[in-house]
Amino acid sequence: MFPGGIIMAGESPGEGVGVAFGQVRGMALALPGVEEGTSYGTPALRVRGRFFLRLKEDGGTRVLKSDLY
């Protein structure tokens, strides 16, 4: 969940209720320590050099890394 309670949803563009990668990017870059880069040739975000979010090659699917214990 990102600031403001926004949850990314859907595996493809326009599916479910979600937000565009650009919106998520803007919110994430407002957080301390977030840096932009690429992963597999697509836009990605990292914190302290560690990947946490990227846009997949299809241009709509977002990959969010999460540690679940």
Walk across the major sheet and give the strand order: 1-2-3-4
Measured by DSSP, the beta-strand proportion falls in 25-35%
Overall 3D form: globular
Order of helices and strands: HEEEE
Provide a count of the helices.
Answer: 1
Q: What helical percentage do the residues reach?
A: 10-25%
Detail the poorly predicted runs. 1-14
- Biggest sheet descriptor: 4 strands, antiparallel
Q: Count the E strands.
A: 4
Distance between the termini: 17 Å
* Radius of gyration over all CA atoms, rounded: 12 Å
SSE-based structural type: alpha+beta
**Nearest-integer average pLDDT:** 77
Give the arrangement of secondary structure elements.
Elements: H1 21-29, E1 34-39, E2 42-47, E3 50-55, E4 62-64
Antiparallel strand pairs: 1-2, 2-3, 3-4
Explained architecture:
- It is a single chain.
- The chain is globular, with a radius of gyration of 12 Å.
- It has 69 residues and is α+β, with helices and mostly antiparallel strands.
- The chain is 13% helix and 30% strand.
- The chain has a 4-stranded antiparallel sheet, covered by helices on one side.
- The protein has a domain at 17-64.
Concise structural overview:
By secondary structure, the chain is an alpha+beta fold.
Question: What attributes characterize this protein structure?
Answer:
69 residues; alpha+beta; 13% helix
